[in-house]
Amino acid sequence: MKKTWSGLLLAAFTLSACATANIGFPANAAGKAADKTIGGIWQTPEAGIGSANKPAAPEAGAIAAAPDAFAVADFGVNTPGVGAIRQKMQARHTQLSGHYASGAVGLTSDGMIGLHDAGVVPPASRYTVDALVAAENQDRNALYAEIAKANGHPEWEDEIRNTFAQRWIERARPGWWMQGGDDWEQK
Using 50, 70 and 90 to split pLDDT, how confident is the model at 118? Predict the structure, then answer.
């Protein structure tokens, strides 16, 4: 009988040691960080100029250090990679904003941007607009991947992309175009 209890206890201990914490994707935190990141890139008043580069103050009661399995995701990370991407996107936005306003370029439902109406772009400028769209999409892909990687969860890249896709569209200015599926709609 003693052997049976010892065996059961050993089995229970072994199984509990193998258990891992299943950390779900923290959508609320990702949404707040996406808003802050987008605000910094688009220089909207609620984000303030340069706020994307300032570290966030810890929340009251926050634990300073936690084991990796229970670490809180930080979607506002400012690694050198994320910071460089944000700066490029912020600089490019000054060139893209007129194209958003004219309807030449719009936001797509997958967190990217696309050419909405090439007819409003003078022929001499089409190559430049295409290059801006391509560079922006390349940086958006890199941003989503870098945030996921910096959080130690590269598997979250799709969720981060989806969160940003929703937030880009929500934060778009009136008059900008958004694509949902195959159809474009003006905000």
Answer: very high
